[in-house]
Amino acid sequence: MSNILNDIASSIFKISHSQGSGTGFYLNDKKIIVTNYHVVGGFRQVSVEDQKQNRYLADVIVADQDNDMAFLKVQSDFNLPQIEFSPAGQLKSSDQVYVLGFPFGMPYTVTEGIVSAPNQLMEGRYYVQTDAAVNPGNSGGAVVDANGKLVGITTAKFTEADNMGFAIPVQKLVEELTLLDQNTEQKYALKCSSCGALMFEPTEYCNNCGNQIDLKLWDEAMLTNLGVFVEDALKMGGVNPILARTGHEFWSFHNGTSLLRFFVYDKSYLYATSPLNALPSANLEALYKYLVSKPIAPYQLGIYDNMIYISYRVRLTDLYTTEKDRVQAELSKFPAKADEMDDFFVKEFGCKYSNFSKANS
User: Fold this and answer.
1) Plot region of 350 (φ>0 → left; ψ -120 to 50 → alpha; else → beta)
2) Mean pLDDT of 310-319
3) 92 and 118 Cβ atoms separated by less than 8 Å
4) Which of 22, 82, 227, 260 fits a 20 to 30 Å CA distance from 47?
5) Secondary structure (DSSP) of 187-208
6) Contact between residue 101 and residue 31 where contact means Cβ atoms under 8 Å apart
């Protein structure tokens, strides 16, 4: 079984944007990523991340709030193992299943459980109920059987109950895939909950059946003022901010080998930080002297938990003063400086890259 799960692991992706993260899986024959609508609702572009921490831009091309499904077109070509679908009616109670995904935005995990009910009726729809652990971030991920075949798409968990997770049955996905025939240009489209037709432009009524459409479904999520400031700085530094987003006012991404994190601390400071290298076993005195000499001001070097960090801190109030442009320029140069410094410590002091470095992937 482990070999089967390993084969399809490369087809499971983390999906991230400015409101959080979730999971999706790639269908090689359709060249799309499948996920939940609630994972990408409010966004036209998101980032998707593979098992090697490579990130790619992806466009939302089908959004179906009613069935909580969405399809993404990745702006890159993949040739990945095809996830096979389990035949209709084959899933039974007590069958073994596995939930694949990124709970809480953590690295990829596989959770084992059994089917509690293959056709659980809730709010007029049927779901696969399982006792496999399902947590925020798993949404949109694949649920597969003991043969590695897809049986459902993780969609929800009762927050007040233990050992109870739910998945959209694979048969519903088969029906949804026919929507791709309506979207030959592969641009953003919203599905009508009444007739199932796709709409490509904001409208209050379905062009096909006249069903009223909630105009809020066409709205795109907006960044905060701080988000705009940080993302403008990232653009100045040559970083695509969509690929850096990892949640609300939080950015975590690799620039070269170094892992960068931008976030608000204590509601008072904007921090940029990166864990560069592990401390070496020798030549420590020379390293300490270098660190305390403040060689790369305005950026700071320090040690925490046997790890060398580079950081940059500014008061949020400074972003509303004449210091704004200076801060933004310094913030824009931080990713390149971090990527420069981790190489420097390897060459000059014999340090190893940190466990967070892409040099180790």
Assistant:
1) left
2) 97
3) yes
4) 82
5) ---EE-TTT--EE-S--SB-TT
6) no
